[in-house]
Design a protein that fits this description.
elongated, 254 residues, alpha+beta, eight-stranded antiparallel barrel, single chain, 3 helices
């Protein structure tokens, strides 16, 4: 996940560098040698639309909780590996005649996973589900080409997540005897169905990075959120965990 994060950052920088290179080439073709770099930059960006835009999207979310210790054991006991996202985003232009935007919106994410272990007739299945609301706030550069039929939009920003609900379900079977226990993932009370001291935290904030391609009104994007706040922090054998979420999204831009 960290490699993807760094690759997306590099992609963002590469896009900005490419835009600068095109700007220099354009200025050489259209202006005399005495034209200043600032004016050339203005001419380059003036060719690109800078009106606000919107997007509805759905996404698939490969998910991983990075634990400071006991990684494999924690993954087996808290198997959140996948997710599905539905969201909306609006982008407001920040600078006139420059395609620099502030993107903000909200999405609903359903995370889930399953882990199984069996030995000598004993079988244990762990299932997890989690419902979250995310609010991304990004700085984006929308580089459009071919009369705005194609646009490439790298972005950097922050993501704020509120976990609304979630459960962990443990199913055990041994020689025909079956037992099932379900725990509320965010309940830290002393109730029998609560996680108690092992409850997940409801709020996380993280860094958001990605890049998107728009062809006419169809949007395809890939992004990554790496949290800098913890989703879990236990005092005994299970230690600190932070969530990382990749989003591969398909949407309609307008």
């Amino acid at each position: 996940m960290k490699r993807l994060y760094y690759l997306l950052v590099v992609a963002f920088v590469a896009m900005a560098t490419n835009a600068s290179a095109q700007f220099v080439q354009s200025s050489g073709e259209q202006n005399s040698m005495s034209t200043t770099t600032a004016n050339s930059g203005s001419d380059f960006f003036k060719k690109m639309p800078s009106s606000d835009y919107n997007r509805f999207y759905i996404g698939y979310n490969p998910t991983k909780i990075k634990w400071e210790d006991y990684q494999s054991q924690n993954e087996a006991r808290r198997p959140f590996k996948n997710g599905i996202t539905v969201g909306y985003l609006h982008a407001s232009n920040l600078v006139r005649n420059v395609p620099l935007y502030l993107e903000y919106g909200a999405n609903f994410m359903y995370s889930f996973g399953k882990d199984e272990d069996s030995e000598d007739g004993f079988k244990e299945t762990v299932k997890g589900n989690m419902y979250s609301i995310n609010v991304p706030v990004n700085l984006a550069l929308r580089l459009s080409f071919n009369n705005d039929k194609v646009a490439v939009t790298p972005y950097l920003g922050l993501n704020f997540r509120l976990n609304v609900a979630g459960n962990l379900k443990y199913e055990e079977s041994y020689r025909g005897n079956n037992e099932t226990e379900t725990y509320k993932l965010f309940d830290s009370s002393d109730d029998d169905d609560a996680m108690g001291d092992y409850a997940f935290k409801r709020f996380q904030a993280g860094f958001n990075v990605g890049i998107g391609l728009t062809f006419r009104s169809v949007y395809l994007g890939v992004g990554y959120v790496v949290d800098f706040s913890k989703i879990a922090d236990y005092d005994d054998d299970y230690h600190v965990g932070k969530l990382g979420v990749t989003t591969i999204s398909l949407g309609i831009a307008f």
